[in-house]
Amino acid sequence: MMIATAVTAFGLAQATQAADPLKVGISGEPYPPFSFKAASGDWTGFEVELAREICDAMERQCEITPTGWSGIIPSLKAGRIDMIMNSMSITEKRQRVIDFTRPYYFTPGAYVAASDLSLTPPDDLDGLVMGVQAATTNATYARRALRDSGVDIRLYDQAEQVNNDLLSGRLDVILADQIAMAQFLARDEAEGFEIKATAPHHAAYGEGVGIGLRQEDDALREALNTAITAVIADGTCASLSEQYLGTDVCVDG
């Protein structure tokens, strides 16, 4: 009787765990068009809506859980969130501490500067001040590939801080995600700025963007991989990408 009771209790615990909403970690700092707050105050954006579709495909509930970008991996490892879905590239360095699903999108980094600045990166960066968001693949690329270019690299906690310092003239150029920059340049205050070039393929950019997971969460990874493949195959990912980004960035295979 005691064994049967223990087995029953274990089964109930497993069922309860499976029924608990998955906490999807995103940066608490808006990163439009991937994640931002709508006028209603609710989080939305390409990755937020894609996360909801992926959870629907798994028949699981999701809770969008904002946290600071610099602490998002520690939050995952501590169990405060169940996964990271916020434009996190799959890199060798990150794979030492967390696991990833298959990639679901990829976009290159882009250099943005004033339209009247003659600039062909990386050759013309010497003597310029460049802003990059810290703890990103663009920051890794800048550190590895541009260290001998003569550029003064300034790191920022938030993407919007980088954008604002470019607009105010405290920066000459910024390096950031191409899609995010296209959205930034569509703003009225960014008139007079343009994308000068995109960064070449480099190991710093990894294999694309995937969902970050704890290394022991094998079952969740497999379920997510199946769901990601499904929402890409049925066109859901492409539709959301076109809606929020203006182009299809979803990765097949």
Automatic annotation (TrEMBL):
GO terms for cellular component: cell envelope. Residues 21-248 form the Solute-binding protein family 3/N-terminal domain. InterPro entries: SBP_3_CS (IPR018313), Solute-binding_3/MltF_N (IPR001638). Belongs to the bacterial solute-binding protein 3 family. Keywords: Signal. Pfam families: SBP_bac_3. This is Transporter substrate-binding domain-containing protein. It comes from Halomonas icarae. It comes from the Bacteria. It is found in: Cell envelope. Its main location: other. Gene3D superfamilies: Periplasmic binding protein-like II.
